[in-house]
Write the C-alpha coordinates for this entry.
Amino acid sequence: MSVKSFKKQDVTNIVGDVLIRRATIADASVIAAVRIDSWRATYRGIIPDDYLDGMKIEDSTAIWSRILSATSSAANVFVAEVDGEVLGFAAGMTLKESKLGFDSELTAIYLEPSVQRAGIGRKLVAHVAATLASAGAHNMLVWVLSQNTQARQFYETLGGELLVEQPFSWDGLDLQEAGYGWRTIR
Protein backbone atom coordinates (compact mmCIF):
# COMPACT_ATOMS: atom_id res chain seq x y z
CA MET A 1 0.00 0.00 0.00
CA SER A 2 1.41 3.41 -0.93
CA VAL A 3 1.62 6.22 1.61
CA LYS A 4 -0.32 8.36 -0.83
CA SER A 5 -3.20 5.86 -0.84
CA PHE A 6 -4.31 6.70 2.71
CA LYS A 7 -7.38 8.90 2.58
CA LYS A 8 -8.81 11.08 5.35
CA GLN A 9 -11.57 8.55 6.02
CA ASP A 10 -8.91 5.83 6.41
CA VAL A 11 -7.08 7.68 9.17
CA THR A 12 -9.13 6.26 12.04
CA ASN A 13 -8.71 2.75 10.64
CA ILE A 14 -4.91 2.86 10.80
CA VAL A 15 -4.24 4.29 14.24
CA GLY A 16 -4.50 1.00 16.15
CA ASP A 17 -2.05 -0.75 13.84
CA VAL A 18 0.80 1.74 14.09
CA LEU A 19 4.22 0.27 14.87
CA ILE A 20 6.85 2.61 16.33
CA ARG A 21 10.39 1.35 15.80
CA ARG A 22 13.93 2.69 15.84
CA ALA A 23 14.88 4.05 12.42
CA THR A 24 17.71 2.45 10.47
CA ILE A 25 19.90 3.81 7.69
CA ALA A 26 17.60 2.02 5.25
CA ASP A 27 14.86 4.47 6.31
CA ALA A 28 16.82 7.59 5.28
CA SER A 29 15.11 8.12 1.92
CA VAL A 30 11.58 7.58 3.21
CA ILE A 31 12.27 9.87 6.19
CA ALA A 32 13.51 12.49 3.71
CA ALA A 33 10.35 12.09 1.61
CA VAL A 34 8.04 12.34 4.63
CA ARG A 35 9.87 15.46 5.83
CA ILE A 36 9.63 17.17 2.44
CA ASP A 37 5.94 16.21 1.95
CA SER A 38 5.15 17.51 5.43
CA TRP A 39 7.11 20.75 4.97
CA ARG A 40 5.40 21.46 1.65
CA ALA A 41 1.93 20.86 3.09
CA THR A 42 2.52 22.61 6.42
CA TYR A 43 4.77 25.56 5.65
CA ARG A 44 3.11 27.02 2.52
CA GLY A 45 2.52 30.67 3.30
CA ILE A 46 5.12 30.57 6.09
CA ILE A 47 8.24 29.67 4.11
CA PRO A 48 8.62 30.93 0.52
CA ASP A 49 7.24 28.57 -2.13
CA ASP A 50 10.49 28.59 -4.12
CA TYR A 51 12.35 27.26 -1.07
CA LEU A 52 9.75 24.51 -0.49
CA ASP A 53 9.57 23.58 -4.16
CA GLY A 54 13.37 23.48 -4.36
CA MET A 55 13.75 20.90 -1.59
CA LYS A 56 15.40 17.76 -2.97
CA ILE A 57 14.94 14.20 -1.71
CA GLU A 58 18.59 13.44 -2.49
CA ASP A 59 19.88 16.28 -0.27
CA SER A 60 17.58 15.38 2.61
CA THR A 61 18.41 11.66 2.24
CA ALA A 62 22.13 12.45 2.53
CA ILE A 63 21.51 14.36 5.77
CA TRP A 64 19.36 11.59 7.26
CA SER A 65 21.86 8.94 6.17
CA ARG A 66 24.56 10.77 8.15
CA ILE A 67 22.28 11.13 11.17
CA LEU A 68 21.19 7.48 11.12
CA SER A 69 24.71 6.15 10.61
CA ALA A 70 26.10 8.08 13.58
CA THR A 71 26.37 6.02 16.73
CA SER A 72 25.24 8.09 19.67
CA SER A 73 23.35 7.19 22.80
CA ALA A 74 22.38 10.87 23.07
CA ALA A 75 20.22 10.89 19.91
CA ASN A 76 17.41 8.69 18.66
CA VAL A 77 15.14 8.56 15.62
CA PHE A 78 11.95 6.53 15.41
CA VAL A 79 9.57 5.83 12.54
CA ALA A 80 5.86 5.08 12.63
CA GLU A 81 4.73 2.50 10.12
CA VAL A 82 1.61 0.63 9.13
CA ASP A 83 1.91 -2.59 7.16
CA GLY A 84 5.59 -1.83 6.52
CA GLU A 85 4.86 1.67 5.17
CA VAL A 86 6.60 4.53 7.01
CA LEU A 87 4.09 7.32 7.63
CA GLY A 88 6.07 9.56 9.95
CA PHE A 89 9.09 9.93 12.15
CA ALA A 90 10.34 11.73 15.23
CA ALA A 91 13.80 12.41 16.61
CA GLY A 92 15.10 13.49 19.96
CA MET A 93 18.36 13.97 21.80
CA THR A 94 19.76 14.69 25.21
CA LEU A 95 21.58 18.00 25.38
CA LYS A 96 25.20 18.43 26.50
CA GLU A 97 24.29 21.87 27.82
CA SER A 98 20.76 22.70 28.88
CA LYS A 99 18.69 25.14 26.85
CA LEU A 100 16.23 27.26 28.81
CA GLY A 101 16.75 24.82 31.69
CA PHE A 102 15.83 21.73 29.62
CA ASP A 103 18.12 18.73 29.22
CA SER A 104 16.63 17.10 26.11
CA GLU A 105 14.99 18.14 22.87
CA LEU A 106 12.41 16.78 20.47
CA THR A 107 14.37 17.75 17.36
CA ALA A 108 11.94 16.65 14.64
CA ILE A 109 8.49 15.21 14.15
CA TYR A 110 6.89 14.94 10.74
CA LEU A 111 3.99 12.93 9.37
CA GLU A 112 2.61 12.37 5.93
CA PRO A 113 -0.12 15.03 5.57
CA SER A 114 -2.82 12.40 4.95
CA VAL A 115 -2.32 10.86 8.41
CA GLN A 116 -1.88 14.00 10.49
CA ARG A 117 -4.33 14.35 13.40
CA ALA A 118 -4.75 10.58 13.72
CA GLY A 119 -2.84 10.08 16.98
CA ILE A 120 0.40 8.93 15.36
CA GLY A 121 2.24 12.10 16.40
CA ARG A 122 1.22 11.55 20.03
CA LYS A 123 2.63 8.04 19.91
CA LEU A 124 5.89 9.25 18.39
CA VAL A 125 6.34 12.04 20.95
CA ALA A 126 5.58 9.64 23.81
CA HIS A 127 8.12 7.16 22.47
CA VAL A 128 10.84 9.79 22.09
CA ALA A 129 10.13 11.21 25.57
CA ALA A 130 10.23 7.75 27.19
CA THR A 131 13.50 6.93 25.46
CA LEU A 132 15.05 10.24 26.52
CA ALA A 133 13.83 9.71 30.09
CA SER A 134 15.37 6.23 30.16
CA ALA A 135 18.65 7.85 29.04
CA GLY A 136 18.52 10.14 32.08
CA ALA A 137 16.70 13.21 30.74
CA HIS A 138 14.24 14.93 33.06
CA ASN A 139 12.50 17.34 30.72
CA MET A 140 12.13 18.11 27.02
CA LEU A 141 12.10 21.15 24.76
CA VAL A 142 10.78 21.55 21.21
CA TRP A 143 10.98 24.42 18.71
CA VAL A 144 8.21 25.23 16.24
CA LEU A 145 7.69 27.97 13.69
CA SER A 146 5.53 30.57 15.43
CA GLN A 147 3.08 30.71 12.51
CA ASN A 148 2.52 26.93 12.58
CA THR A 149 -0.69 27.09 14.61
CA GLN A 150 -1.54 23.41 14.08
CA ALA A 151 1.77 22.27 15.61
CA ARG A 152 1.47 24.79 18.43
CA GLN A 153 -1.99 23.45 19.29
CA PHE A 154 -0.58 19.90 19.16
CA TYR A 155 2.17 20.70 21.67
CA GLU A 156 -0.23 22.62 23.90
CA THR A 157 -2.68 19.69 23.86
CA LEU A 158 0.19 17.44 24.97
CA GLY A 159 0.85 19.77 27.91
CA GLY A 160 3.73 21.73 26.41
CA GLU A 161 4.32 25.08 28.07
CA LEU A 162 5.13 28.09 25.88
CA LEU A 163 8.57 29.25 27.02
CA VAL A 164 9.73 31.83 24.49
CA GLU A 165 9.13 33.30 21.04
CA GLN A 166 12.13 34.65 19.17
CA PRO A 167 13.53 35.37 15.72
CA PHE A 168 15.97 32.89 14.16
CA SER A 169 17.56 32.21 10.78
CA TRP A 170 17.18 28.95 8.88
CA ASP A 171 19.10 28.39 5.67
CA GLY A 172 19.12 32.11 4.92
CA LEU A 173 15.45 32.65 5.87
CA ASP A 174 14.52 34.99 8.72
CA LEU A 175 11.76 33.30 10.72
CA GLN A 176 10.09 33.40 14.12
CA GLU A 177 10.12 30.37 16.43
CA ALA A 178 8.33 29.37 19.60
CA GLY A 179 9.90 27.13 22.20
CA TYR A 180 7.68 24.75 24.17
CA GLY A 181 8.72 22.55 27.03
CA TRP A 182 7.61 19.75 29.26
CA ARG A 183 9.07 20.18 32.75
CA THR A 184 8.94 16.44 33.40
CA ILE A 185 9.01 13.48 31.01
CA ARG A 186 9.32 10.68 33.57
In short: Residues 1-16 have pLDDT under 50 and may be disordered. The longest strand covers residues 85-99. Residues 79 and 99 are 26 Å apart (CA to CA). The beta strands are 19-22, 75-82, 85-99, 102-111, 140-145, 161-170, 173-182.
